[in-house]
Amino acid sequence: MMITRVHVICGLLVGCWLATPTLGLTASEPNLPRGKKVYAKYCLACHGPQGRGDGATQFDPPVADLTSSEVLMKPDSRLLKSIHEGRPNTAMDAWKSALSDEAIHDVLAYILTFPR
Ligand code: HEC
After folding, report:
1. Is 72 a pocket residue for ligand 1 (Cβ < 6 Å)?
2. Which of 6, 51, 100, 103 is most solvent-facing, going by the fewest CB within 10 Å?
């Protein structure tokens, strides 16, 4: 059978359509309720209920205030990396083995809803 351009495009479309739900490629819309749950379970103890960094005070350098301009001026990609990889020589751990990429996206989206 001759493979035409139509076949290739159609194959790509069907492939993407099939892959989308399984690979979680629909993640454009963050799941805020899930982000909130992740935050409560893993982050709140240090970062505090409103992200002000007032959950745990014994660390040096101190826990970041997630509503501060210092944090918010960083692009999302940088903050995702901080959550993913942690921050070297601080109490901020890497979360990539505990949390899926989707959960990390959701928790970042939730953090960005805190009143500033
Ligand atoms: C053990 C305490 C602790 C826990 C738990 C914790 N953090 Fe942090 N976090 C810190 C500290 C300390 C810093 C400041 C790091 C620094 O000075 O660079 C920080 C910084 C951050 C920053 C700012 C990073 C940057 O690039 O400036 C973000 C975003 C963040 N944490 C998100 C989270 C999320 C999301 C969770 C839960 C999945 C979490 N943290 C859990 C202690 C914690």
Report:
1. no
2. 6
Hey, what amino acid is at 97? S
The full set of domains in the chain, from first to last, is 29-111 (1.10.760.10)
* Burial class of residue 113 in the structure, from the number of CB atoms within 10 Å of its CB (0-12 exposed, 13-18 middle, 19+ buried): exposed
Instruction: With H, G, I as helix, E, B as strand and everything else as coil, classify residue 45.
Output: helix
Separation in Å, CA 50 to CA 40, 46, 90, 109:
11, 11, 21, 14
Q: What is the pTM of this model?
A: 0.83
Q: Which token pair is 51?
A: 């992200």
Is the shortest distance between the CB of 64 and ligand 1 below 6 Å? yes
Q: What type of residue sits at position 34?
A: R
Q: Are 88 and 97 in contact (CB under 8 A)?
A: no
| pLDDT exceeds 80 at position 17 | no
